[in-house]
Amino acid sequence: MEIRKISGALSVSPQVTLADIPAIKAAGFRAIICNRPDGEGSDQPTFEEIEAAAEKLGIEARYVPVQTGLVRDEDAQAFGQALTELPGPILAYCRTGTRSATLWSLHEAAQGRPLPDILTATKAAGYDMSGVARRIANGGKTPTDTGDASFDVVIVGGGAGGIATAASLHARKSDLSIAIIDPSDVHYYQPGWTLVGGGVFTPEQTAKTMGALIPRGVKWIKAAVAAFEPQNNAVILDGCRVVKYDRLVVTPGLKLDWGAVEGLEETLGRNGVTTNYRYDLAPYTWQLVEGLKAGRALFTQPPMPIKCAGAPQKAMYLSGDAWVRRGVLKDIDIQFMNAGGVLFGVNDYVPALMEYVKKYDATLNFFHNLVAVDGAAKTATFKVAKPNEQPEQVTVEFDMMHVCPPQVAPDFIRVSPLADAVGWVDVDQATLRHKSYDNIWSLGDVMNAPNAKTAAAARKQAPVVADNIVADIQGRGPVAAYDGYGSCPLTVERGKIVLAEFGYGGVLKPSFPKLLIDGTKPSRAAWFLKEKLLPPVYWSAMLKGKEWMAKPEPLKVAAE
Q: Partner of 483 at 20 to 30 A CA spacing, among 59, 118, 194, 381?
């Protein structure tokens, strides 16, 4: 943990973990302020978890959440109030510490502290608040007519889509100035978390440092995006810095909305409540599976869209397989609680999946949407909204529960001019170009094309975006089309997978001859692909601009 002192009373730091709390106590801090909203990152503990750990050591904790980059004057006032009310010295944290430093700067400016003093103090702590100074001098609004940096292509998001697009662009046109904006230190291979929860992978196999993955020649701006001003070709960062672009790619992923389920944040990681959607909790899934000898196991799936529509049931199948192998399945009641009305959206794969539902004697409960959890009481409440029936609520007891959280676009996307009516980036589903801004493209989980949100989809989308950006630079129209491809390797048992591959409209898009892998049936070859081949393809091909089995389809232009 990196603690940076700003004043005698306040220090700031990047994200605090539960393991950091004893060191914070030892450093003499008497209070903690959390400026990061819950659910921003998949490796982020909730405020309730931090608060509970801090209180055990006599440290007060205060929650003053601020959306990424959207630091308002009211937020600065709330921060200042916390500084006044809490015992010092105080440690404030967010994802990188920038939001906390910004809040302090705005609060101090409002108290009449000279700007040079604010800039000196924050600079000494490693934070550039010159953008905040411009905002203050501009009456509270960040000017975007000029910028702190400018690039040919700016990519927002250093996940699968962002790094793959940067690598593909660099391979096509090495003289482009390209920047990736992402505040994370670690890049995760999230498809591997299902196997962590199934006792196959270790968490460490799914993580690498971001700096090791950014393509050579691409600038990494380690910051969070606050806002977009597409009319000025500008991105505003935390700390009110401005980055200008000729062309923009938006691919920050989506937000796991833990707070949408009452009581969930307070009980995650304990009381038998787990999830494979968090890096730090996937091992807890396997711990619970290994420890359960009898009782009821719930597996939940929220309304669409979500990352990899098969992921919630993958956890169920791998758990069931483990219980079969240990000979305890007869004493375990498996219940799949699905907010939707079907097991899987592409019918071709359902017969094979139903065989495993029968094998594990799992009960399918459709139209059951998780709305509340009482971890101490071991109960989960679901809203049941079946067609042509009055909605009702049912409460179910559990001994173990794997939760797939509701998922939405990130806050800074939903409030931006790039978003559609429900918050996703609004793109043409073939070219992935924004419908209103010709120099903006989007890919990955954040855009609104009607495809499955999977890493495999991003693998196919990145070359399409790269081809179309290069064509645009050359003065041509779009040349490549995305066909909606997505892949969901359904881990139905340890050693076998139903390899679902499909495009727009549920059209099957198999990558291999049927004699090699018949995706509609469980196969060991597909498991070998998932466990042994796909991780190195991800790390060493997709993120390096090697577009194996990902050549873009040419765009078909309608005849006039």
A: 194
* 414-433 average pLDDT score: 94
Element (H, E) at 237: strand 234-237
Fold: same for 4-137 and 149-254+409-554: no
Q: Which fold has domain 149-254+409-554?
A: FAD/NAD(P)-binding domain (3.50.50)
Q: Which single residue is written with the structure tokens 């196969």?
A: 523
- pLDDT tens digits, 232-252: 999 988 777 899 999 999 999
Which pLDDT value is given to residue 1?
82
Three-class HEC string of 279-303: CCCHHHHHHHHHHCCCEEEEEEECC
Amino acid letter, 129? M
Phi and psi, residue 263, nearest 5°: 85, -5
Q: Tell me: pLDDT of 560 over 50.
A: no
The DSSP symbol for 495 reads T
Cα separation values, 301 from 58, 365, 501, Å: 38, 10, 20
Q: How many Å is the maximal CA-CA distance in the chain?
A: 74
Spatial distance between the Cα atoms of 360 and 355, rounded to a whole number of angstroms: 9
pLDDT in tens, 210-232: 999 999 999 999 988 878 889 99
Chain centre to alpha carbon of residue 64: 22
Determine if residue 278 is left, alpha or beta; phi over 0 gives left, psi from -120 to 50 gives alpha, anything else beta. beta
Is domain 4-137 given the CATH code 3.90.190.10 in the classification? Answer: yes
Q: How far apart are CA 12 and CA 121, in angstroms?
A: 12
pLDDT at 137 over 80: no
How far out from the chain centre does Cα 70 lie? 19
Ordered by start, the domain boundaries in the chain are: 4-137, 149-254+409-554, 258-407
Per residue in 455-502, pLDDT (tens digit) is: 999 999 999 999 999 999 999 999 999 999 999 999 999 999 999 999
What is the CATH code of the structural domain delimited by 258-407? 3.50.50.60
Q: Is 308 designated active site?
A: yes
Catalytic entry in 34, 240, 308, 404:
308
Nearest-angstrom CA–CA distance, 318 and 269: 19
Whether 404 is a known active-site residue: answer no
